[in-house]
Specification:
The protein is α+β, with helices and mostly antiparallel strands. The chain is built from four helices and eight strands; from the N terminus they run H-E-E-E-H-E-E-E-E-H-H-E.
Length: 195
Amino acid sequence: MDLVKSKDDLIKSEADFYIDRDKVPHGYVILTLKNNILIPSSGIDESNANGYYILWPDKPHRAAKQIHAFIKKNYKLKEFGVIISDSHCTPLKNGVMGIAIGYYGFYPLRDYRGKKDIFGRTLKMSQTNIADSIAAAAVLVMGEGREQTPFAVVEGVDSVIFKQPKQHIDPLVIEKNNDIYAPLMNSTNWKRHKK
């Protein structure tokens, strides 16, 4: 931390967009958008860091791919995925849960669009975010305090397709202006970080 002059400057430099601390109730955090994720303080963590700041990998999907390659080579596994997770808070709810900030080795969505619901109606929008769902379960097991459980093995998840998406675009990402939360994302409080 001696090399960091200001945590706020570090947060802003790691963010794609941010809302200053003075616009946040009680000034607890700087709200940020990083890698298309709404996350306080650019995901920078001080807890369990013994005087250091823990940052997200520069390219979380690439880091997950490297971990996947290491496990595949050294443990001869064939069908598995890797998720890099972090704690995340949901607006208007207390408590944190896990989210996927990077993944590799499986398709991250279960698509129900075009299928029938229990009443025979055709579903138009429903997709399950498998990556975040697994991350939430894993972080619940790994804990948030003194547990010292850095990873979890999750098995038996139905309908996981062990293949990487063919396109270069992350299927989980919704363009900011097309998201149902667009009115919040387009707030005039957001400032673009100039890199």
